[in-house]
Design goal:
Blueprint (H helix, E strand, L loop, with lengths): L1 H6 L3 E5 H18 L4 E6 L6 H9 L3 E4 L2 H9 L7 E3 L6 H10 L3 E4 L2 H13 L4 E8 L21 E2 L4 H11 L3 E7 L10 H20 L6 E3 L18 H19 L5 E4 L3 H4 L3 E13 L3 E6 L8 H5 L6 E2 L9 E6 L8 E8 L7 E5 L19 E6 L2 E6 L4 H4 L6
Parallel strand pairs: 1-17, 2-3, 2-10, 3-4, 4-5, 5-6, 6-7, 6-8, 8-9, 9-10, 12-14
Antiparallel strand pairs: 1-11, 11-12, 11-16, 13-16, 14-15, 17-18
Helix pairs in contact: 2-9, 5-6, 8-9
Length: 412
């Protein structure tokens, strides 16, 4: 209540200790289980902000970025360039130029067109750029169709099954200025089973063996991606513990390499949501209550789909509490609706709460990932402020936008 009073609502509140604890669990779990060189790379698309990247750099994590904007933010935050990986299925020439000029550690090639583009830029700078090839391993993961990326029908990577991956790998090996160091795969997000990762590791090693037998290729580096599921408050799935998932993947990679008599590749994994998601809470204020007899009660809050598009986009489910009345008995089932001009702007269709009142504070946990990073100014509403809590102290890391901010890029 004090935070809402001081900083207003909607407000996003992050717990620093949770972020550090989960980052360390992945890092220590991977290092403890993998005899070779390893790195935990935070997936910046989950939420990319200077304060967060500084924190993760201090935890010795790497970073994967998917745009010039994320890369620019990482540079401003002072993130170590030697731990940065550039992903994306359609990197522009300007973005690649920025990355090469700064000395990006690795570029992950996604398609044939990118080979020529990156090769030309690298050759112009007389540098040899280390790259990984993103492959589509043909592994089905049980997740929402819109966050499934490893199946045959996906815009990401090049298919092993169709032969496209082999074609692009050979093109990289012929291209001036590029050195193919390894392979990357990512099969989707919100995955709660370990078997799809084990199948991905096997498939990628089999493909590496094909490349090895065909010519001059050694698997120096390998990433089976991330996408490890986070348990939202209403979901039944049991999230994989960071230490456990790191251990299983490490053992799978070690086993494949030893079975084939190969040196251990440098191993990276890419958790994003599962590091920051549990650390965030979204705080809203109730503005109106609309009871439709025999149908539903809508409790309208001062945020919604512009700061959290996931329910409208994927049907994502959340739970809520009344932060100012946590001890009151739960009596009602209501819909927590947003303020935006779309019928689909409903954050929670069936929330169990005490009977809500105007000015109540609705807190939604599990709000740390893919909310602020996907936020918009729909209806020209300013985006919310963000605070971080550490040892009982609060610091503002992003101020609330103003109406002037909304027009700052317009040519008047």
């Amino acid at each position: 209540m004090d935070l809402a009073q001081e900083y207003g609502t909607p407000l996003y509140v992050y717990d620093e200790a949770t972020i550090r604890g989960r980052a360390a669990a992945y890092r220590e779990g991977l290092q403890g289980a993998y005899p070779g060189k390893s790195l935990v790379c935070y997936a910046g698309k989950a939420y990319c902000a200077p304060w967060l990247l500084k924190l993760l750099a201090s935890e010795q994590l790497g970073l994967d970025v998917v745009s010039g904007g994320e890369f620019f933010t990482a540079q401003r935050a002072g993130f170590p360039i030697q731990k940065m990986y550039f992903h994306g299925n359609n990197k522009s020439e300007d973005e690649l130029f920025l990355a090469l000029e700064a000395g990006i550690h690795r570029v992950i090639i996604d398609n044939l067109e990118e080979v020529e583009r990156l090769s030309r830029l690298a050759a112009e700078r007389v540098v040899e750029q280390g790259v990984l090839l993103r492959v589509a391993p043909g592994v089905e993961a049980h997740t929402h169709a819109q966050i499934l990326t490893g199946a045959p029908d996906t815009k990401f990577g090049v298919s092993i099954d169709t032969g496209a991956a082999r074609e692009v790998a050979q093109a990289i090996q012929r291209a001036p200025g590029l050195r193919l160091l390894g392979l990357h795969a990512h099969i989707g997000s919100q995955i709660f089973e370990i078997e799809p990762y084990l199948a991905t590791v096997r498939r990628v090693f089999d493909f590496a063996a094909e490349l090895r037998s065909a010519g001059n290729f050694e698997l120096h580096e390998l990433s089976p991606g991330g996408g490890f599921g986070m348990r939202y408050a209403t979901e039944d799935q049991q999230a994989l513990a960071p230490e456990a998932v790191a251990k299983v993947i490490a053992e799978a990679v070690s086993g494949e390499a030893w079975q084939r008599g190969w040196p251990l590749p440098e191993l990276t994994i890419e958790p994003g949501r599962s590091i920051v998601g549990p650390a965030g809470v979204a705080l809203y204020r109730v503005g109106s209550i609309k009871e439709i007899n025999g149908v539903r009660t809508y409790v309208a809050v001062d945020g919604g789909m512009a700061d959290n598009t996931r329910p409208a986009m994927y049907g994502a489910r959340y739970s809520a509490v009344l932060a100012n009345r946590v001890c009151d008995p739960v009596t009602d089932t209501v819909a927590v609706a947003g303020r935006y001009c779309e019928s689909g702007d409903v954050l929670i269709k069936e929330a169990r709460l005490p009977r809500p009142r105007v000015d109540d504070l609705v807190a939604i946990p599990g709000a740390g990932a893919y909310q602020l990073s996907m936020a918009s100014n729909y209806n020209l509403v300013p985006r919310p402020a963000v605070v971080v809590v550490r040892d009982g102290k609060v610091r503002l890391v992003r101020r609330r936008e103003t109406y002037d901010d909304l027009l700052s890029a317009e040519v008047m």
